[in-house]
Design a protein that fits this description.
Blueprint lengths: L4 E6 L5 H12 L2 E3 L2 H10 L3 H7 L6 E2 L15 E2 L1 H18 L2 E4 L3 H4 L6 E7 L2 H12 L3 H23 L11 E4 H19 L5
Parallel strand pairs: 1-5, 1-6, 2-5, 6-7
Antiparallel strand pairs: 3-4
Helix pairs in contact: 1-8, 2-3, 2-4, 6-7
């Protein structure tokens, strides 16, 4: 195929972002994670902080918190998650239209579900491995790491399930689910590429 989008869903602490970055490096294509926030803000004219605060979360945000101190509490000064999701979805569709890329999270597998050039992957790992990774990366205790993992995964699950009407992390939603601890980061990325070739996505 001329273009390929690899959508990477991931459990927190599974190394999913590292796998995505490795995929991008091997294939020579862009990886979009926080970059999606900047692109969405740029295309909408809204503050990047608004999208960052809302990233893979569900809640209601006030325009006044980001733009002015006037008009606080007025209905027209609020933007809900549906509006922000539509803006980010438009950015994701625009990326898929223009280039091959790796997109991390943000329901990209659902947003691009009608395109034939997408490979949907979910990266997972045992809890103990994720606790260790998060603890070392953030310099926190294993107990704090476990709390953060549970909180972050819950937010991602709620966000994904709400917008996709599906089930985050359930194997049937993806083309490939893989435990990153079995082959490590590099091996996982290489396995995904081999899978893509066997499936006809890559030559």
């Amino acid at each position: 195929m001329d273009k390929l989008i690899i959508n990477v869903g991931r459990q927190f602490g599974s190394g999913g972002k590292q796998v995505a970055l490795r995929l991008g490096k091997i294939l020579g294509i862009n990886v979009y994670d926080n970059e999606l926030i900047s692109k969405a803000a740029e295309s909408s004219g809204f503050s990047k902080d608004l999208f960052k605060a809302k990233d893979e979360r569900r809640s209601l945000f006030s325009f006044s918190s980001f733009f002015s101190s006037q008009g606080f509490g007025q209905p027209e000064n609020y933007v809900n998650e549906n509006r922000l999701f539509k803006i980010q979805s438009s950015v994701i569709n625009d990326i898929a239209e223009k280039e091959s890329a790796v997109i991390i999270g943000r329901c990209a597998d659902y947003i691009l579900r009608d395109r034939g050039c997408t490979l949907d992957v979910f990266i997972c790992a045992p809890l103990e491995s994720r606790k260790k990774r998060v603890s070392e990366r953030l310099g926190i205790s294993l107990d704090k790491a476990e709390e953060l993992i549970a909180k972050t995964d819950r937010k991602r699950e709620t966000y994904y399930n709400y917008f996709t009407f599906g089930n985050w992390g359930v194997a049937s939603n993806y083309d490939l689910c893989i435990d990153s601890t079995i082959l490590d980061i590099d091996g996982t990325a290489e396995y995904i590429i081999d899978f893509a070739k066997r499936a006809g996505y890559l030559k």
